[in-house]
Specification:
The complex is a heterodimer.
Chain A: H1 2-13, H2 17-30, H3 35-43, H4 54-62, H5 67-77, H6 80-87, H7 114-125, H8 137-146, H9 152-161, H10 165-176, H11 185-196, H12 200-207, H13 215-221, E1 240-241, E2 243-244, E3 255-261, E4 264-271, E5 274-278, H14 290-295, E6 300-308, H15 320-324, H16 334-339, E7 342-352, E8 355-356, H17 362-372, E9 381-383, H18 392-401, E10 407-414, E11 422-423, E12 428-432, E13 436-447, E14 456-464, E15 470-476, H19 482-494, E16 496-500, E17 503-506, E18 511-516, E19 518-521, E20 529-532, E21 535-540, H20 551-555
Helix pairs in contact in A: 1-2, 1-10, 2-11, 4-6, 5-6, 6-10, 8-9, 11-12
Chain B: H1 4-7, E1 8-11, E2 14-17, E3 22-24, E4 32-34, E5 49-52, H2 54-64, E6 74-75, E7 81-84, E8 87-93, E9 101-107, E10 110-114, E11 136-141, H3 153-166, E12 172-175, H4 181-191, E13 198-200, H5 205-213, E14 221-223, E15 236-239, E16 256-260, H6 267-272, E17 277-279, H7 287-297, E18 301-307, H8 309-318, E19 322-325
Parallel strand pairs in B: 3-4, 4-5, 5-6, 10-11, 11-18, 12-15, 12-16, 13-14, 13-15, 16-17, 18-19
Antiparallel strand pairs in B: 1-2, 2-3, 7-8, 8-9, 9-10
Classes of the chains: A alpha+beta, B alpha/beta.
Bound molecules: zinc ion (2 copies).
The site of one zinc ion has 5 residues of chain B, from loops.
Chain lengths: 559, 337
């Protein structure tokens, strides 16, 4: 548990992605099975112990610590697991002076600080069955898994008694979830690939097929075993991704064109008797879309866009906003199912009836896809149409004229290309609709993270209301060069009106041309609108602030 | 025996000793002030006469231009004191920063100790806290919640040195309050065997020199402003917390941001400060030190000046100790703790 506690402690304070990768990779190569597997499952929130919940931890704590002191502490710390970890009394030790509740003695003038004294004592008084006084992650997982609602408090207490404050924090985060160390499943898989020098696509594919603590995965990573066999498992296949089409044109004889939909990319897998839905990063999102799981009853793997139908669009695909309401839910209400029904617009077929179609060219997969889609319920699945354009110019015209809110642009797929994981040059292109732009005025600036911590690099900008008031319309922290960032940072410092913690309010004098993919009505913003993917496209030093856009102009772009 | 309440009046801006017509740590200018230590929330400029330890007076001279030589300002070594209006005042080590003192007042058979800020664990830059028995113990409570248990200082210093050695191409920038914490970190580093020059922010230069002049050896210190960026790789830099994410830090070679403060015990706090390496090093008593000290002093009554008074009051209640909170204002706990 010590190594795991040290790892999450470092991850909490590490902001750079590369450093996080290095920390996790190092942990994975230096920690034995099954600890490393459980640890990485905990980091990616893949563990659940139904018998251990916050309320139970609070109740347990009340048996050891005064409730009022817990309440005051919890209020200050703001997190139950951390409060409990810090408050849990260490084993009582003898000391002179005799004080009660959580106090220990302090020999005057001697370097015997309380924590050290307690640590030593717990090592002496608690000889561990494992020999070195160290409780393994696996042991904690075993104990927590075996816990019932009745036994959980005693089990958790005995584990907490054997750990120091950092260890208790790690244990409680492992037990309760909510790790908040910025480690996505994708990052964890990359760390695994980095640690054992194996292709991340393989890790991606195997990961979902093997449950924690992933022993066969580590055995394969370390070259001790063959790649695990995935027959009869509803596993995730890494997505084939597209490059942006920059300035280039392609010959439509070589490339097929499809609409690019503004939903979320999903893969639906049916295998070994179950159906699973995976998102772009390979995270399983089946629970959020039970109607799709129920409707997909064919032995196949499809790739498509998940969309919801909205009334406003006359039952057609609604915009991304409507979809967001359903994302990230663990359970879905009946009301939600009725108001925002989900469906999938299918554009690829990766496997069917036990055959892997990925090595086949797109043309052949498409042929099989068109034959396959009628096997699915048309209430929840439809076929993404190929755009029948005469030539590239014709395609450009159609792309520019597309008005459907759910259309984000055009996809170009090489007709003779197999389905390969990741982003490969020349195979797939995405050709987004030209971004919309607006001239906005910088209002506030905030410091960035990591390498940008000394720069004001996050900007809130606004447009003019009818009454001549500047209202915030968005926030952007990208799109500029390093040189421009230096200039913007200096502008912020030289034109500060007010400081609110890390935020500075600036003189409303600088016009920023902001590019964004689309704009939506939003009740959360006073301006009534919200931008999707806003970024700074140009600094308009030439333009007076009064000539920046009005909210009304932005409202006209709402989809 | 006199009743304390008749001769010592707590006001929001300080404690007033009636028979002596004198204030302790007043937060606004008064005619006569006894000052526990040099931090700005205890020592202010503009008083008529100041009574303090020689080190505290020197710090006040440096920070606020208080005239040490002026006859109305009087310096007292630890153990010494003066009498005024029938009240006997004396100064005793508080272990907080250089020159920090508890003030003992004796009047009509009653003894009152006011701690100012204090800590119990050893500090190479100041004299250790002394337990002074009394009837009324007036204590701080900056860390008056049981979540605050500072780890052994040596453990935190080892973490700091380990971080510098782990990435020799970078440097570690330690945010530490310019009076007390900064010198403590330097002193602890020396005690741990770190003998390379320590690089400092210009704002700390004079205070470090003052410490050295009072016999606190901090080893070789160099100014960041006079050093090449490359020469600071693999080195330790000490700067005030406000400089951590400031433009000033751009002159350092890819710094790892550290911060030395008792608040670093709470992870979310450390994250908010954008700290990569939190060092739980405090010049204030942690929960165990606070509660142990009250037990050892064993007063009839405990008064709490500032901090998380609710937590410490609750502890007193649980231990059948009479206690009250004074709600002093203007005590800024954020930076120096
Ligand atoms: Zn202080
Ligand atoms: Zn103070």
């Amino acid at each position: 548990m010590k190594a795991f506690a040290a790892l999450i402690d470092r991850l909490i304070y590490t902001r750079s992605r590369n450093s996080k990768l290095a920390l996790i990779a190092d942990y994975l190569t230096h920690t034995p099975d099954p600890d490393r597997g459980w640890a990485i499952a905990a980091l990616t929130e893949s563990l659940d112990f139904p018998a251990v919940k916050s309320a139970m931890v609070r109740t347990l704590l009340a048996t050891r610590v005064d409730e009022e002191l817990f309440r005051l502490s919890r209020h200050f710390v703001g997190d139950t697991a951390e409060t409990a970890a810090l408050l849990w009394p260490e084993k009582p030790i003898p000391f002179r002076g005799g004080v009660g509740v959580g106090s220990v003695g302090l020999a005057q003038g001697r370097e015997t600080p309380p924590a050290a004294t307690r640590e030593q004592s717990s090592q002496v008084s608690l000889p561990s069955p494992e020999g070195e006084g160290e409780m393994s992650v696996a042991r904690a997982v075993d104990a927590l898994s075996a816990a019932t609602r009745a036994t959980a408090p005693a089990i958790l207490a005995s584990l907490l008694d054997r750990l120091d404050a950092d260890g208790r924090y790690a244990l409680l985060k492992l037990a309760l979830g909510g790790m908040r160390v910025g480690v996505s499943a994708r990052l964890a898989k990359q760390a695994f690939a980095q640690a054992f020098d194996v292709p991340v696509d393989d890790v991606e594919e195997l990961w979902h097929a093997i449950p924690p603590p992933y022993a066969p995965l580590f055995a394969w990573g370390e070259g001790r075993a063959e790649r695990p066999d995935l027959k009869d498992v509803a596993f995730f296949r890494p997505f084939m991704l597209a490059h942006p089409l920059e300035e280039a044109t392609v010959d439509l004889a070589d490339y097929a064109a499809e609409w690019k939909w503004d939903g979320i990319r999903v893969q639906i897998v049916h295998g070994g008797g179950e159906t699973r839905i995976y998102s772009r990063g390979g995270e399983e999102i089946s629970a959020a879309f039970p109607e799709l799981v129920a409707a997909f009853d064919q032995d196949a793997v499809i790739d498509g866009e998940l969309l919801v139908r909205g009334d406003a669009q006359g039952g057609e695909a609604a915009s991304f906003n409507a979809l967001q309401q359903r994302l990230g839910r663990k359970t879905v209400s009946k009301k939600m199912l009725a108001e925002s029904p989900a469906f999938v617009r299918v554009y690829d077929l990766l496997a069917v009836d036990g055959n892997d179609l990925r090595p086949l060219p797109w043309t052949e997969r498409r042929r099989q896809l068109e034959a396959f889609v009628p096997r699915l319920a048309d209430s929840h699945f439809d076929l993404s149409q190929v755009i029948d354009a005469k030539d590239f110019d014709d395609l450009a015209t159609r792309r520019a004229g597309a008005r459907d809110a759910a259309i984000e642009g055009v996809m170009l797929k090489r007709r003779d290309a197999p389905y390969v994981a990741g982003r490969r040059a020349g195979l797939w292109y995405k050709w987004k609709r030209d971004p919309l732009t607006a001239d906005c005025v910088m209002m506030y600036a905030q410091r960035g993270n990591g390498r940008r911590a000394s720069f004001y690099s996050d900007y809130t900008f606004g447009c003019w209301s009818e009454d001549g008031e500047l209202l915030p319309v968005g926030k952007a922290y990208s799109g500029f060069t390093d040189e421009e960032l230096k200039w913007l940072d200096k502008f912020v410092r030289d034109n500060t009106l007010n400081r609110f913690g890390p935020v500075r309010e600036v003189e409303k004098s600088l016009v920023l041309e902001v590019a964004f993919d689309s704009i939506h009505a939003s009740k959360r913003h006073k301006s009534g609108i919200a931008m999707r993917f806003p970024r700074i496209s140009r600094i308009r030093r030439d333009k007076p602030a009064e000539e920046a856009d009005r909210i009304a102009a932005l409202l006209a772009m709402v989809t | 025996m006199a009743k304390a309440k008749s001769w010592l009046e707590p006001h929001p801006h300080g404690l007033y000793v009636k028979p002596a017509d004198l204030w302790i740590d007043p937060s606004r200018p008064v005619e006569r002030a006894a000052v526990t230590h040099g931090h700005a929330d205890h020592a202010r400029s503009g008083h008529g006469a100041v009574f303090a330890t020689p080190e505290t007076l020197a710090i006040m001279a440096l920070r606020y231009g208080v005239d040490v030589e002026a006859s109305h300002n009087q310096a007292f070594a630890y153990g010494d004191g003066f009498e005024r209006g029938g009240v006997r005042f004396s100064f005793h080590p508080a272990g907080h920063v250089l020159g920090s003192a508890q003030i003992l007042m004796e009047y009509a058979g009653e003894r009152i100790v006011i701690t100012g800020d204090y800590k119990r664990r050893p500090d190479p830059t100041c004299a250790p806290f002394e337990v002074v028995p009394c009837d009324i113990f007036i204590t701080e409570a900056t860390f008056g919640l049981p979540v605050f248990r500072h780890p052994p200082t040596g453990h935190e210093i080892a973490k700091l040195i380990g971080a510098v050695r782990a990435e020799p191409d970078r440097c570690v920038l330690v945010g530490a309050y310019a009076l007390g914490k900064a010198q403590r970190v330097m002193g602890e580093l020396r005690a741990a065997g770190w003998d390379a020059p320590i690089y400092i922010h210009g704002a700390m230069e004079k205070m470090c020199a003052l410490y050295a002049a009072h016999g606190v050896d901090l080893g070789e210190l160099r100014l960041v402003s006079e050093t090449d960026k490359a020469a600071m790789a693999g080195q330790i830099i000490v700067a005030p917390p406000s400089a951590l994410n400031d433009r000033w830090s751009r002159r350092l070679p890819d710094p790892v941001t550290a911060m030395a403060s008792g608040w670093m015990r709470v992870r979310q706090r450390a994250r908010q400060r954008m700290v990569e390496l939190p060092l739980v090093i405090s010049d204030h008593a942690d929960w165990d030190e606070l509660t142990t000290t009250i037990s050892e002093v064993n007063p009839k009554e405990t008064w709490i000046t500032h901090g998380s008074e609710d937590g410490l009051l609750r502890w007193c209640e649980l231990h059948q100790r009479k206690a009250r909170a004074l709600h002093l204002v203007g005590r800024d706990l954020e930076e120096e703790a």
